[in-house]
Amino acid sequence: MKTIALSSSQTIAYHDQGSGPVLLLIHAFPVDSHLWLPQLEALSRSHRVIAPDLPGFGGSAAAAWTIDGAAQIIAGFLDAIAITEPVALGGLSMGGYIAMAFARQFPQRLRALILADTRAEPDDDTAKQARAKMIAMAQEQGSVAIADAMLPKMLSDSRPHQVAEAVRTMIERQPASSIAAALAALRDRPDARPGLKKLEVPTLVLVGEADTITPLAMAQVIAESVTGAKLVTIPGAGHLANCEAPQAFNAAVSEFLSA
Ligand code: MLT
After folding, report:
1. What is the pLDDT of residues 48-90, one digit of tens each?
2. Are residues 147 and 168 in contact, defined by beta-carbon separation less than 8 angstroms?
3. CA-93 nearest atom, ligand 1
4. Which of 21, 12, 35 is nearest to 88 (CA)?
5. Fewest beta carbons within 10 Å, which of 101, 125, 240, 244?
6. Residue from 33, 35, 92, 93 to probe ligand 1 pocket by mutation (most atoms less than 8 Å from CB)
7. What local confidence, expressed as pLDDT, does residue 11 receive?
8. Is 94 in the pocket of ligand 1 (CB under 6 A)?
9. DSSP H stretches of helix in 106-215
10. 161-172 helix and 143-154 helix, angle to the nearest 10 degrees
């Protein structure tokens, strides 16, 4: 992995693999850029695949952030690594919230958008209360308790054991303070639906067939909001469809990007 300083206090760690058109991938909560290992390996045969750690996750320095602010950090990161051409941007779940925020703020920097296992709706009151409980859990019990609570929901019942173990390891190594900061950003995120209607960028919407966190109906809301968007369901996969069914996920992304 590489590291780049965006300012004296903000450093971003990132994977950068392959050459060709840039595919920038933003990870989900509460993991890090290693989520994208199956895509870094396969898609770097045709693309320069770049996957940063969000602030406080993986090797990136902690910072207070919001979903819209994270999009600005990503734009600053692209500037810092001298990528000026429009990129293909993909995000999974929380990464999708940030990708939609990037598309709202920097549409000229995009040539394609991939929104995987994510949703456009903001948190309702019940969801906000659940975030408060989870912030308390992170602060009082740490990231192992968060992994115990989240892992069953993030993967399908038929998940391979090694995928579940890799995701658990990723969650457990994130600092509890970073998990709590991200939960606040998730809780306070804006409604992405109005912005989606203004998008003019080719968009692929992906969803694991067995995703219970952001199920098919939520993917359909996104696909129906973006003119010309393509919706692909990944058979059998849960919320982290890119790790559970990497071949089907990568095939859908490759076909979309080469179209
Ligand atoms: C994620 O996978 O990034 C989270 O489930 C998103 C969320 O909780 O809203």
Report:
1. 999 999 999 999 999 999 999 999 999 999 999 999 999 999 9
2. yes
3. 3
4. 21
5. 125
6. 93
7. 97
8. yes
9. 125-141, 143-154, 161-172, 176-187, 193-197
10. 150
Residue 71 Cα, ligand 1 centroid: separation in angstroms? 16
* pLDDT tens sequence across 169-217: 999 999 999 999 999 999 999 999 999 999 999 999 999 999 999 999 9
Q: Is the CB of 31 under 6 A from ligand 1?
A: no
Is the shortest distance between the CB of 213 and ligand 1 below 6 Å? yes
Q: What tokens appear for 42 in the block?
A: 């396969």
Q: What is the mean pLDDT of residues 93-107?
A: 98
CA angle, 68 as apex, 66 and 71 as ends, to 5°? 110
Long-range contacts of the stretch 224-227 (C-beta < 8 A, 24+): 225/120, 225/193, 225/196, 225/197, 226/113, 226/196, 226/197, 226/199, 227/199, 227/200
Q: Which of 29, 128, 154 to mutate to test the pocket of ligand 1 (most atoms within 8 A of CB)?
A: 29
- Percent of the chain as helix, strand, coil, to the nearest 5: 50, 15, 35
Label residue 82 exposed, middle or buried (CB < 10 Å: 0-12, 13-18, 19+): exposed
Backbone angles phi, psi at 233, to 5 degrees: -95, 135
The pTM for the full model equals 0.98
